[in-house]
Amino acid sequence: MSIRPWVVVEAPDSRGLRRVTRGSETVGSAWSSGDLRRILRHLDFPDDIDLDDPAFISWRGGDSDTWPDRPWRRRATLALMTAGLLASLVLSALVGWPDAAGALTFAQRMTGVLFVLSGLVQGLAAAAALDYWGSRRFRGSGAVVLLGVLIALATDSLLLFMWLEEMEPTPYLLMFLPLWCWSVWALVVLVRDDCWQGVPRPKRFAAGVVVTALLTGVSLAYSTMYQPAAAPMHLSLKAKFGTARSDRGAPFVHVPLSLHMKNTGGIPVYITNDIYTVRGKGATYSEIHGNQDMLREWRRSAGRGNALGDVERYADRLTRTVISSSHVYGPGKWLEVGQEYTVERVFQIPRDAPFGTVAVTMQVSYMRKDRGKLDVDQFKNPHYTWRTNEEGYYCPWQSCGQQLVYGGRVRHNNNLINVTRKPRFVWATWSPGRQPYASVSSLAHWNKTVSEQEVKRELDRYGAASIRAEAEVPVAELLSSAGL
User: Domain segments of the chain: what residues?
Assistant: First the structure.
């Protein structure tokens, strides 16, 4: 009859932890002889038991003096691994939550949800790290930590790659650049430790990680590239003169004007600037013979300020006089899909007006609402360049004229762009009778200069465009409809 010891202390694992069993049951794990004595005390062994007595304890892979654990190194690794995973959780939440909670499109919201879920996995991995560098009671704790580190490496690599495209200063760089270095270190540590050994089917685990990464990549590509371009953007404008009426008390004719706009595209749009201008067109009429004479008259007219390119055989010295000009809808407002807006205006012209025709020009600048979120509360309030108390906006009229300035922060609906770029702003300037201007750039002050290349790139990025409509009517027709 053989005598078996009550307790078996197994050989140290890669970290120096030794598993303690009694019979077929694992009763604990020990880093040191002190840990072993605590386990034995729970098994009702005396405190002064001889650890080298083979009647009670059997040692495998070393004796009672074999304790290769390096507690400070292990605890430092645990602290760095846990801190990195928790920081990655915070970064994933900062990137994903704005899209998950407020993105306009379903695809962009799903991208935000993926980042939030990735953060939750990293939080679970931080908890698993405590077990993996501890007693390892959960067999898959190492695999969970590896999954969290791989997610962090993929996220930080994506952010770093996007930042390298333009390398603009952003406070998030101080977060994802150190985390990228940490994730590379953490991956090396886990691979060297063969952390996936506790997984029952490591091949399936690896396949699941690859599939998850592919789905995430496809979702990001769809939300950032295909989906924003798939929805068409189109705005229709219409301007129409009404029936004129004479003024009995004054030598004027009142002319109704109807201005109409409608979002006929597939996405909502912000109005960043708009204007309508009514001009009276005058000319000196003469008989011109031959194309060369016509071109000579056109050059003469263009030299006097007619730079619009009109060429008329019998009209010379074309002039345009601004009669009325104002906003149509107003900067900072938006049109939902299918929404339309109509405004009725009335302007006056003298009965003996020296105009041959009256023309209206209507122009609207707009941007896609699914690309960015404009701070409309800030943008819709105009600033006056001629007011000296408008700090940051005052400009002498000799240099800037007299303009209204609209400005506000715009955030891209894909928050990956927001965290890897400097803030972007929409600026619009307006003055009656002039060409309205709207731009998107990184400038925080409107009176600074920026390259045309940057403005064009940002206008394309946020899907900005403009549309124009014109209508013209003879003054003789207006006077006839007024009974004159």
Answer: 7-59, 71-230, 235-481
